[in-house]
Design a protein that fits this description.
The chain contains 10 helices and 11 strands. The chain is α/β, with parallel strands linked by helices.
Length: about 350
């Protein structure tokens, strides 16, 4: 029988993490913060045929892959299911059908092994990716979060608590990258495609900044930037003008990323912290990594940037956040359900 109160917290637990919020079926095994294995079975190639993620296809492919990816991760780690001390899985935010596959599998696994289960907020997972790069990292620090679903700057005060300091009031940065890619005729996924194209261009187009105009503002808006790119491209097409797509991509990239970097450094100074971290799929963008690194260096701030493979959706970050909650004794009930949206 699953009894949360009966579990004993171990000093260096083996944690299995599961992630299935979108089109990646992922499983990882951690010993403390040490990554023993990390496997991903992706449906991105199938989704690319339709120009984006189709929820029903994602759910079906998660169902086909979830058992296999778990077996592969355990085999890579050289462990048996009985070696697991805790199971952690994403319960939100994401595609509801996709989430239910990984969550149901993970709850069943925890129940069968009689080990704690931890339902992980996907966004907290992105924050905890920083611990994978620097296992001895300790709060407080400022985190720049930029993904397909969320864009925010956070003050992480402890291993289990954070405060939202700045956030987007509409679209997320990753969503804007995808829309920009689509209007430029670039393949899915949009973020890497825009970055690659931008490398051959220059920021010559004056698009509106993603930062709301008030200089003291802590709000971002990507809806206007996205619309400006769409209108610019459509107007050029209607006038029969040759569009320099590389310049458009470079200009969009600067307008989307520069304000995030600027505000992250400003807030680190305001809150008198010495360390900045970053998480989310957009953090894999090479321009962002360069500009954020340079800005932190000028400001005398330490920067913790996860490897690119741990910025995009993965299960190691879910296991890492699972460890935070495990050590705090925050075990979940097995009746917890998936949630398509979770407030930051």
């Amino acid at each position: 029988m699953y009894d949360k109160s009966a579990f004993v917290i171990k000093e260096n637990p083996i944690i299995l993490g599961m992630e299935s919020s979108c089109d990646e079926t992922a499983c990882a095994v951690l010993s403390g913060r040490k990554i023993l294995s990390s496997r991903i079975i992706s449906s991105a190639a199938e989704q690319a045929k339709y120009g984006g993620v189709v929820p029903e296809i994602a759910s079906r492919m998660h169902t086909e892959a979830v058992d296999e990816v778990c077996r592969l991760a355990l085999a890579d780690a050289g462990l048996k299911p009985s070696d697991i001390d805790c199971v952690a899985a994403t319960y939100g935010a994401g595609l509801l059908g996709a989430l239910l596959v990984g969550l149901s599998f993970s709850k069943a696994l925890a129940y069968s092994l009689n080990v704690p289960f931890i339902a992980v907020n996907h966004i907290r997972g992105h924050i905890s990716a920083a611990y994978l790069d620097k296992p001895d990292l300790k709060p407080p620090f400022i985190t720049l979060l930029a993904s397909g679903g969320h864009t925010a700057i956070l003050y992480t005060s402890s291993f289990t608590k954070f405060e939202v300091l700045a956030a987007t009031s509409d679209d997320a940065a990753g969503e804007a990258f995808d829309k920009c890619a689509r209007v430029l005729g670039l393949p899915y996924p949009g973020g890497p495609s825009v970055q690659k194209l931008a490398e051959g261009g220059a920021p010559t187009v004056k698009f509106p900044s993603a930062l709301v105009k008030n200089s003291a503002s802590l709000r971002f808006s990507y809806s206007g930037l996205k619309t400006a790119v769409i209108n610019y491209c459509h107007n050029a097409e209607q006038r029969g003008e040759q569009l320099n797509a590389a310049d458009v991509a470079a200009s969009f990239q600067c307008a989307a990323i520069d304000p995030l970097v600027k505000k992250t450094v400003e807030l680190a100074r305001r809150y008198n912290v010495k360390t900045v971290t970053a998480g989310g799929g957009v953090i894999a963008n090479e321009y962002l990594r360069r500009t954020l690194s340079a800005a932190c260096r000028r400001a005398g701030l330490a920067l913790v940037l996860p490897e690119k493979k741990y910025c995009t959706d993965n299960a190691a970050m879910i296991a890492s956040e699972g460890l935070n909650q495990y050590m705090a004794g925050n075990f979940s009930d097995l009746d917890i359900n998936a949630a398509a949206a979770i407030p930051l």
